[in-house]
Amino acid sequence: MLMLRARLAGAALCAVLAGCAPSAQTDVQTAIAEVSSRSVQIPDYPQANRTYLSFSGAHGFQVTYLAAGGASHLWYPGNQQALKGAYKRDTIGGRDAMCWRYGAQTYNPVTKQGGGKFACQSMELTRKTVVAQLRGDPFRLATGKLPYRLARCTAPREFSFDRARFSC
To answer: Is the peptide bond before 138 cis (omega within 30 degrees of 0)?
Structure first.
């Protein structure tokens, strides 16, 4: 079972437009509020040929390698292989946005939506989810293979960030 990297705005959209269950909506709203209150840790995000660690209460830790040419490779908690996808910057409603697309067979456990189409959120919120970065593809995510199964609440030790502040 593959899961799609969901961004919190997509979760908010689900909660507002699709009428997610009240408990899920509350959890998503809490995660969005927490992320929104953060300062940006990596102001030059996104840059090609970098691996980023993001964190939200809704998803836990996620690792994404952004390759040149718009290819992305996601290491999502619990997955057995990296998800190949695409990323792009866009403007939505006059605001900078970050968008991702993963295969139609993927599933976002937070928004309960399938993949196949670009899902976008504000660049500001996206940048606030990113807590650390590494140059290149040190985990070789572009191969599709993962070094190990990522636990939701445990970030790879290779990243340097405030582990007390960003945790489940």
So the answer is: no
24 pLDDT band, cuts 50/70/90, is very low
| DSSP line for the chain | --B----HHHHHHIIIII---HHHHHHHHHHHHHHHTSPPS-TT---TTEEEEEEETTTEEEEEEE-GGGEEEEE-TT-SSPEEEEEEEEEETTEEEEEEEE-TT-EETTTTEE-SS-EEEEHHHHHHHEEEEEES-TT-GGGS--SSPPPTT---TT--S-TTTS--
**Average of pLDDT values for 52-81?**
95
Least Cα distance to 117 among 90, 82, 141 occurs for 90
What are the two backbone dihedrals, phi and then psi, of residue 98, each rounded to the nearest 5 degrees? -115, 135
pTM recorded for the entire structure = 0.80
Instruction: State both tokens at 56.
Output: 């939200």
| Confidence at residue 20, expressed as pLDDT on a 0 to 100 scale | 33
Q: State the pLDDT at residue 94.
A: 94
Terminal Cα distance for the chain, rounded: 23
63: its two tokens: 């690792």
Average pLDDT over residues 99-123: 85
